[in-house]
Amino acid sequence: MDHFFEIDYVYTAASFSVVVLAMIVFLSIFETVTKYNNWEEIKKGNVSVALATGGKIFGVANIFRFSIQHNDSILKMLIWGGFGFGLLLFGYFIFEFLTPRFKVDSEIAQDNRAVGFISFIISVGLSFVIGAGIIKN
Predict the structure, then answer these.
(1) Residue 49 and residue 41 in contact, taking contact as beta carbons nearer than 8 Å
(2) Exposed end of the chain (fewer CB within 10 Å): N or C?
(3) Cα distance between the two ends of the chain
(4) CB 33 within 8 A of CB 104
(5) What is the pTM of this model?
(6) Domain residues of the chain, as ranges?
């Protein structure tokens, strides 16, 4: 099986498939920790939710970019990507904790675009920091 993954096209397609499935799982986890329904709010035109969700999607994809770049196997890539996702999720909770004057989820649900934009930037920024910490094994 290892010989099969030595073919660049196969490895790329396998990495892509694993990341798409992981993205679905990770977005489902984000959906359960937020107090609003991401896709319903986006359907209604809530730009703040779209920004926050887009930041999460970019963040997870960026973490996996680093993970693919620095690991030679699909399993290691998935493990590091999952670890990075856990750190990104932790960053989301820190953001909520560090804003005691308001509830981030409530503000985003009410389409506070400033909070949605900051949430986007936090997800993107943290994904670069997390990705930089992913090492080659």
Answers:
(1) yes
(2) N
(3) 20
(4) no
(5) 0.88
(6) 2-133
